[in-house]
Each structure stands twice: as structure tokens, then as C-alpha cells.
Amino acid sequence: MKSMLKDAGILFAITLVAGLLLGCVYQITKEPIARQEALAQENACREVFSDAESFEAVTDFTEEAAQTVLNEGGYSTASVNACQEAKDASGTVLGYVLTVTTHEGYGGDIQFTVGVRNDGTLNGISLLSISETAGLGMQAGDVLVPQFADKNAYPYVYTKTGSTADNEIDAISGATITTNAVTNGVNAGVYYFQTMLQQGAGEGAANE
């Protein structure tokens, strides 16, 4: 009996010390991690809105409300996870940076930022997370990303025979699932912008 109590006491002490140490480590690393995450987010924004002086989260944005909008527009396979205003030095809103996740990737979710100017023109997209097939879908950064720069031709579609129109995106050879996922994700982001943000930017209703 005494042996059992002793063992229990030792186990309790080890657990308590381990818990205290973990708590201390969390407190020490919490702020540096938060700073790194904020820096990574700002860098991601600058990738798609290089002429903006600052970025500010849209105060009334929620992922749940955004998903409702996307579902109603037929984009239930994508999500808008964050929305930030891109501002110039005077505080004027130049457009928005949206963080979009498409759930149609061959290897899982694909997440990227998309910069949209007030008139609906895309500055481009920047991949944040992708785990597609090496040599195929993983070529998205080289093949797909450049094609969305300076485009204003929603809705975008992909083609396997060579693009002949502004809204056509050349598919990655052998990776149409990845191409489709990214294209639909971009369309979802633009749809959300047109539906929820463009009028607020003073540009009038979306022309679809």
C-alpha cells in the first residue's frame, strides 16, 4: 500500500512539473510565434499587393458569413479564411487581399492569397499551402500562378488546348484536378469580392 502511494506521489509530481514547464515554454514562445505569424501574413499580403502601404483586417469579416455567401454562389468547395484591406500611404483602400482555401486539390486543401483591386483586377495569387503530386500538381506555382496576374475576366476557366481568351487558364499537363481546384478557388475569391466588397469600395455592383 505504501509503495503504491509512493509511486502515485512520484507520478503526480512528474506530471505537475511537466505541466508547469510546458506552461512556461508556452508563455515564453507565445509572443514570438504571434509576431512571426503576423509577419508571415503581411509578407503574404505584399506578395499580391506590393504597392500597398499597409493592410488592415476587415472588421466585420467572419469565415462563417463568408461561407454562406460562397455556398449561395455555388462555391461550396472553397472557403475565404481572411479578408484584409490594402491601403496606400493616405489610408485610401486600393483593394483587398483574400486568403482562400480550395478543398478540391488532388492531395488535399490548397491555400493561397489573392489580391483584388477595387475594379476587380487581380494583382495575382500567392500559394501558401499545397501538397499536390510532385512533378504534376506541384507545378502550380510555376504554371498557374503567373497566369492570374493583371487579369479582370471573371469567371475564369481552364483549357487543355491553349488559352485564346483573357479568362482562360492553361491547365498543368497531367494535373487538371489541381488546375480546376485553383481556378475554382480564384473564382470563389472574386465572387466574394464582387458580392460583399466591391460596392463598399465605391465601384458599383459587380458585372457578372
From TrEMBL:
Record-level GO BP terms: electron transport chain
Cofactor requirement: FMN
Signal peptide limits: none
GO molecular function, one term: FMN binding
A Gene Ontology term for the protein's cellular component: plasma membrane
EC id: 7.-.-.-
Keywords: Cell membrane, Electron transport, Flavoprotein, FMN, Membrane, Phosphoprotein, Translocase, Transmembrane, Transmembrane helix, Transport
One Pfam family named in its UniProt record: FMN_bind
Subcellular location: Cell membrane
Membrane topology: Single-pass membrane protein
Domain of life: Bacteria
InterPro entries with a match to the protein in the record: FMN-bd, Ion_transpt_RnfG/RsxG
Predominant subcellular localization, coarse grouping: membrane
Domain named FMN-binding: residues: 105-193
FMN phosphoryl threonine PTM positions: 176
Cited function: Part of a membrane-bound complex that couples electron transfer with translocation of ions across the membrane.
Subunit structure: The complex is composed of six subunits: RnfA, RnfB, RnfC, RnfD, RnfE and RnfG.
Family: Belongs to the RnfG family.
Name of the protein this chain belongs to: Ion-translocating oxidoreductase complex subunit G
Gene designation: rnfG
